[in-house]
Design goal:
The structure holds 2 protein chains of 2 kinds. Chain A is mainly α. Chain A is built from 20 helices and 2 strands. In chain A, strand 1 and strand 2 form a beta hairpin. The longest helix of chain A is centred in the middle third of the chain and has 32 residues. Chain B has a domain of 211 residues. Chain B contains 20 helices and 2 strands. Chain B has a two-stranded antiparallel ribbon with strand order 1-2. In chain B, a hairpin with a 4-residue loop joins strand 1 and strand 2. In chain B, 65% of the residues are buried. Classes of the chains: A mainly alpha, B mainly alpha.
């Protein structure tokens, strides 16, 4: 049959089959079998990861009649997405253990992963909408599975409504692209768009950016993040702060580089401004937070701003795509490490106030040290992963001629240090008020160990990862 | 051997983390042993150093290790010994050991305390050996972070504020420095497939931005980074707070070793990598230098708190290094350049010895008396050990001949006379004020009537072990300056820049 190159979508098939298997399985399991879906999802994700990794050396090609790309860019992003899903599965499984939603959480996680993986490869406007919806809907569900009363319900509703509106606006923008060029294919749009009326191209660009700005929490569509992050349980927050963001950046980069070639409609400048505003807003708002999850929410907005720097120069600077990939990988490790600690804390005290960390270095020295490492990495202190990530971002900004943005970002990183140190102050520089006994669920130490190891290794010995990320530059266009 | 020296403190620190916290004495002695071995190793390097400056593999840097670190962006693990770096390595190892001697009886959170000091040791030693800008930056911040915790956990009343201020100031400076490093990197062609290179040798050979308007901004970034750490006026604001709040051992490392990171960067990175720009803006550096000297001395004069007073004298002393860098740019005479650079390097070592010792003495005094206000003291001449050491260190700091401070100040001011006599006049004003200052400290603490209720024990054996080596070395170097000058003159970056 024509256009049915199933060999090219091994990981997607594996994930899809896993979803089909997990849905009925999650409905039937009882008693001690309720943890089975998590285990199955773990194996499924691992299989998909291996299948994806095998595709790395493949040369780029379009499959399914030009609607889906198999190229180095997509494959590396799929590795990042599936890898982050695997890392996030550990704390999520640990958190939901013994709760109502125990068998269902891994199902939603797998669906979201499939959505993200599909988005990374999509070359067709229809597929983009489809996979974005799949990713988002599964994420809404995951947030909603936290039975935490009013705040959790509010978070779910907010996430859902914001997401639905943003994605609808984006779909509307995509229809403009179709109207202007008569094609649904990004490649063909890219060829035809330079001849179109610049005003309409700009309108389409602005509308499409809404959806991606929502996914990656960029200004002005970041409003949902603090409330949703705070309302969901910490492991779920960790997941939605990482996976939709990676997938969003994959989709955004492919759209910009393929459909808007050569900086059409001035998108590099637009993105550069968005980057500056996003990091400044995230950092300034984070200064005033008193709760860890809200602090990390604004931090993740700021981090998205940093990554947008590389997006702004991705069309002109060779190292920009690897820099994006590296930063996203680093961000995954350090952010998940931080949220895993928050999860443990939440379990004990039922809340995530900064004051709850007081004296943690005495009561739980190991956990305190690991959270400190994660925060210092987010602040960009060497030799941790966040440091090299920031070096790469600043470097591509300077080589892309965006000196002002590099200087602005450096100023932001100074502000960032202040609020990343505030939990550290509570943990190390203040005496404990009463005994804190951290609850140790089996999944948490593993998640914390793996993410910390990643943060350290990525910073100290980045050469292998950078060699892998060099594949990102093989983008079909 | 260089690699071993750099990482021995860290390895000792990791070992301490693995040892049981219930045996603090064991932890203390382990830290002491690790620091002792580090010092022995660095002395071994000192003895084996080729003073002709021609030994070693490439570019006069000796005992070099060059490994791929991040080949795709042209960053390598590249360490080796320059004369200046070696002097700083020995100084750091010595101070670290003496600090470990001093804190032997300290029993609060021993594990973390020892680990943080050892981690800082690795950062400092690595920084002074680094031959790659990215690696330099990495060690720079690795040395910085432990200091934040040391001030923040073991400091005085306002420790949280002081620690945060210290970290934010330094981080702001270091990020400006990072941007400049990246700019230099982007202006340097790379080798082995990488587009650019972070290697200090490669950047020095490429001389990026020479003669362009961008050069000023690149230099400014470096000045911000090194200037905060030095510290130079007007970036010095964090220093008094950090010193006053830091525990004694933290002050010693901060003044003795950490300030040298900035001075080392000025001499080993700014001068050789941007000589033309420094030449153009030599007046700026020299002006910053003399302002720091005069301001530091005057501000110190206004202090009543002895620790704060000593902290301000650091601004005065480090001003000599900035002035020397400026004079280097203002002159074309190789003889004058060698003179001022030798003086600056000498000042770095001398200040580490003298001010390190001063902070020990003031810390002990404050600890025993419960106050550090100069007015609360008097008549301490009755304590012969304390009085003798304080007098020796103070005379060394004000530049009495036969002590190390004299050589440094004589060389820099002598060089200033050779460039423009007005620089020398301004520098001498700073010197006069600081002379008065030290005499006032001596008079206030040692002379006069002992106030009622002031009952202080003289230094005990452990404290003597911590301070006497510093004073003795200052005396030794004051009498035989060539011991040190011979080594620092072999610094390729310095001599190479001198000959340019």
């Amino acid at each position: 049959m024509k256009c049915l190159e199933l060999w090219a979508v091994g990981p997607e098939l594996a994930l899809g089959l896993m979803c089909l298997l997990l849905v009925p399985l999650a409905g039937f399991v009882r008693g001690k079998w309720r943890s089975l879906p998590s285990i199955v999802a773990g194996f499924g994700l691992t299989a998909a990861l291996i299948l994806t990794a095998r595709m790395l050396p493949w040369s780029g090609q379009e499959v399914f009649c030009g609607t889906y790309a198999v190229d180095g860019f997509g494959t590396v992003f799929k590795v990042l997405i599936i890898g982050s899903a695997l890392l996030a599965l550990l704390p999520i499984a640990a958190y939901f253990r013994g709760r109502d939603a125990e068998p269902h959480a891994p199902v939603a996680l797998t669906f979201a992963t499939l959505g993200g993986v599909g988005l990374a490869g999509s070359l067709d406007l229809g597929l983009i909408v489809l996979f974005l919806q799949m990713l988002s809907t599964a994420s809404y569900l995951l947030v909603g599975m936290t039975r935490g009363g009013k705040r959790a319900n509010e978070a779910t509703m907010k996430y859902f409504i914001y997401g639905a509106v943003a994605l609808a606006v984006m779909a509307y923008g995509l229809t403009f692209l179709y109207g202007l060029t008569g094609s649904l294919s990004l490649t063909e749009i890219g060829m035809a768009l330079s001849g179109a009326d610049p005003v309409w191209v700009w309108v389409a660009l602005s509308l499409v950016l809404v959806g991606y700005a929502f996914e990656i929490t960029a200004v002005p569509f970041q409003f949902w993040a603090p409330d949703v992050y705070a309302g969901a349980s910490a492991p779920v927050t960790g997941f939605i702060s990482v996976l939709p963001k990676i997938a969003g950046f994959a989709g955004l980069l492919r759209l910009m580089l393929v459909a808007f070639p050569d900086g059409l409609a001035g998108w590099p400048t637009l993105i550069a401004v968005l980057a500056a505003v996003t990091m400044a807003l995230g950092n300034l708002a984070a200064l005033r937070q008193t709760h860890l999850k809200r602090l990390l929410a604004y931090s993740s907005i700021a981090q998205a701003g940093y990554i947008l720097i590389a997006v702004a120069v991705s069309g002109t600077v060779d190292g920009a795509l690897p820099a994006t990939g590296y930063y996203l990988a680093a961000y995954t490790f350090m952010n998940l490490a931080a949220f895993t600690v928050v999860a443990q804390l939440e379990r004990v005290s039922g809340q995530d106030a900064l004051t709850g960390l007081r004296g943690l270095s005495k009561t739980a020295p190991g956990t305190a040290a690991l959270l400190t490492l994660a925060l210092l990495s987010l602040a960009g202190i060497p030799p941790l992963a966040g440091f090299l990530g920031k070096v790469l971002l600043l470097q591509v900004a300077l080589s892309g001629g965006l000196t002002w943005l590099a200087v602005f970002a450096a100023l932001n990183m100074v502000i960032g240090l202040y609020y990343y140190l505030r939990p550290v102050v509570e943990m190390y520089l203040r005496a404990p008020e009463g005994e804190i006994r951290l609850h140790v669920q089996p999944g948490y130490p593993w998640a914390l160990g793996l993410t910390t190891l990643g943060t350290l290794l990525l910073g100290l010995w980045p050469a292998p990862v950078l060699a892998l990320l060099a594949n990102l530059t093989r983008l079909l266009r | 051997m260089v690699n071993l020296i750099i990482f021995l403190p860290l390895l000792t620190g990791l070992l301490i983390l693995a040892l049981p916290a219930s045996r603090p004495a064991l932890l203390r002695w382990t830290a002491l042993g690790g620091s002792g071995l580090t010092l022995l190793g660095s002395l071994w390097l000192w003895l084996g150093f080729d003073r002709s400056g021609l030994g070693g593999a490439a570019g006069g840097v000796q005992s070099r290790t060059l490994l791929d670190w991040i080949p795709s962006i042209g960053a390598s693990y590249d360490v080796g010994l320059s004369g200046l770096g070696l002097a700083m390595i020995v100084l750091t190892a010595l101070l670290m050991l003496l600090v470990m001697v001093y804190v032997l009886p300290q029993r609060e959170r021993v594990k973390e305390h020892a680990f943080l000091f050892l981690l800082m040791g690795t950062g400092l030693l690595g920084l002074f050996a680094a031959q790659d800008l990215l690696l330099f930056y990495l060690f720079f911040e690795v040395a910085l972070v432990p200091m934040y915790f040391i001030v923040g956990i073991w400091g005085g009343e306002g420790r949280r504020y002081a620690a945060m201020k210290f970290f934010l100031y330094t981080r702001a400076g270091s990020l400006a420095m990072l941007l400049s490093f990246l700019a230099l990197y982007l202006g340097t062609p790379g080798t082995n497939g990488a587009a650019h290179s972070f290697s200090i040798t490669a950047v020095a050979a490429a001389q990026p931005y020479a003669g362009t308007p961008a050069a000023f901004w690149v230099m400014l970034g470096l000045l911000l980074g090194f200037g905060v750490k030095l510290p130079t006026f007007p970036l010095h604001n964090w220093l008094p707070d950090a010193h006053v709040e830091a525990p004694t051992e933290g002050s010693v490392m901060l003044a003795g070793a950490q300030l040298k990171m900035g001075a080392f960067g000025l001499l080993y990175i700014l001068l050789p990598l941007m000589p033309d720009t420094v030449r153009q803006y030599g007046w700026l550096l020299a002006a910053l230098g003399v302002i720091s000297m005069v301001y530091g001395a005057l501000a110190a004069l206004a202090q009543r708190d002895l620790k704060r007073l000593i902290a301000y004298t650091s601004i005065n002393h480090m001003g000599y290094v900035m002035l020397a860098a400026g004079l280097w740019g203002l002159t074309n005479s190789p003889a004058v350049r060698e003179l001022v650079l030798g003086g600056a390097a000498f000042q770095m070592v001398s200040h580490g010895l003298l001010t390190g010792g001063m902070f020990f003495l003031v810390g002990i005094l404050g600890h025993r008396a419960g106050t550090r206000n100069i007015d609360a003291f008097g008549g301490l001449m009755a304590l012969p050990r304390f009085a003798g050491l304080l007098a020796l260190l103070a005379f060394g700091s004000l530049g009495l001949p036969a002590l190390s401070g004299f050589v440094a100040e004589f060389q820099v001011i002598g060089g200033a006379v050779g460039v423009n006599v007005w620089w020398a006049v301004l520098a001498v004003i700073g010197l006069l004020v600081s002379t008065g200052l030290y005499l006032r400290v001596l008079a206030g603490v040692l002379m006069g009537q002992k106030p009622d209720g002031l009952d202080i024990q003289d230094l005990n054996g452990r404290e003597l072990w911590a301070i006497v080596p510093l004073a003795a070395l200052s005396l030794l170097l004051g009498i035989f300056p060539s011991l040190l000058l011979g080594v620092v003159a072999a610094t390729d970056a310095v001599t190479g820049a001198t000959g340019r």
